[in-house]
């Protein structure tokens, strides 16, 4: 028994000394070192191939960022993967649960289970750092006692003037308005959702006639902007993976556990705007497994990604009133035969389709239908699935969030359209 303890102690000492030696031989780079300086490390005479040095720098950055000391010091770390990853927003002390980009610019809101909400006015503005961020909490109250609740879902209204949040503990759905001087004030919407389960996502009609929420069940709920429930729709898809609203607010597409994707038309009375209901108008058949992601383009194409490892793009501008169904325009092969496809979105300009699978994001040109580039290891050192991703409103950035991670990575959008500019 004593011998065993002694052995363990010896082992610990050896490991500690080993680490100390490594630490001495490789002095830690200060996290606040300016980018220009760290770039000089990349010069060819450093003796490393570009790949190796990039990888090492990446690993080093992640190591630095993960130490408690640097978590305070390097609030804003920079990291590059072939110059695409331009910033890592590291500021929450627990996992980031949701984020959403402003519909027109780079402003981003992020929510964490540490109960903080941050609004990054310009998330890549390295100079501004803390001042570029507005931090607040979502207050809940019970029996007159106030405490902060955390958001589980958020989205911007199309005008960029306010943000909708779905709260976790109280099940409140609430809007906050952004005032002229970037102050955040309580908005006009504050209701309690009757849904028992945690809201998975919230999305708002660009024309501001309705918003919708859904959870892990097969049902989504449609609300008017004052917080009255207009209708609940049972999709019969066992479990909803995603519900998306088209750019004109006219269609809602839902994807779930089953292979069929459904599209509803949202009907309002022409003259007085009275809500008439949702009409199921299309049933997209062709996938062979659960559909994990669905997205509309601005010109009403629909993209779907599926567990069957196919990416499909559909034309929904059909005479559905005459019984016509959506037509498959083309399908795309994934960039890796073993990748699990998770999410899909069109770039705001409409020239790219971005697909997230495992910890990678691939960009497809909608012109050539070819992969433009693949961002691998988007979740850094730890390989986890991408939980959420999205383009900034101006189309210049892509943000990725890994499952359980406390940071959001921001990526420059690759230059289009020439393939050679990406892989020289
Ligand atoms: C360097 O990167 C290229 C393409 O990005 C890749 O094909 C190659 O295998 C990499 N080399 C090493 C040593 O990792
Ligand atoms: C929501 O709250 C429950 C406890 O009420 C907690 O276990 C869970 O982690 C929270 N979810 C998120 C996403 O914060
Ligand atoms: C993606 O993730 C799944 C399950 O987590 C795994 O089986 C698969 O090998 C991964 N694919 C790649 C390309 O890493």
Automatic annotation (TrEMBL):
The residues the entry assigns to the signal sequence are 1-18
Which residues, by range, are in coiled-coil regions?
none
Any one cellular component term from GO for this entry?
endoplasmic reticulum
Q: Give positions of region: Disordered.
A: 29-54
Entry superkingdom: Eukaryota
The WD repeat units are at 89-120, 233-266, 284-317
- List the SMART domains hit by this protein, alphabetically: WD40 (SM00320)
| Alphabetical keyword list | Repeat, Signal, WD repeat
Biological process terms in GO annotation: endoplasmic reticulum unfolded protein response
List the InterPro entries.
WBSCR13 (IPR042410), WD40/YVTN_repeat-like_dom_sf (IPR015943), WD40_repeat_CS (IPR019775), WD40_repeat_dom_sf (IPR036322), WD40_rpt (IPR001680)
Task: Specify the protein name.
Answer: Transducin family protein / WD-40 repeat family protein
Task: Read off the lineage from the record.
Answer: Eukaryota, Rhodophyta, Bangiophyceae, Galdieriales, Galdieriaceae
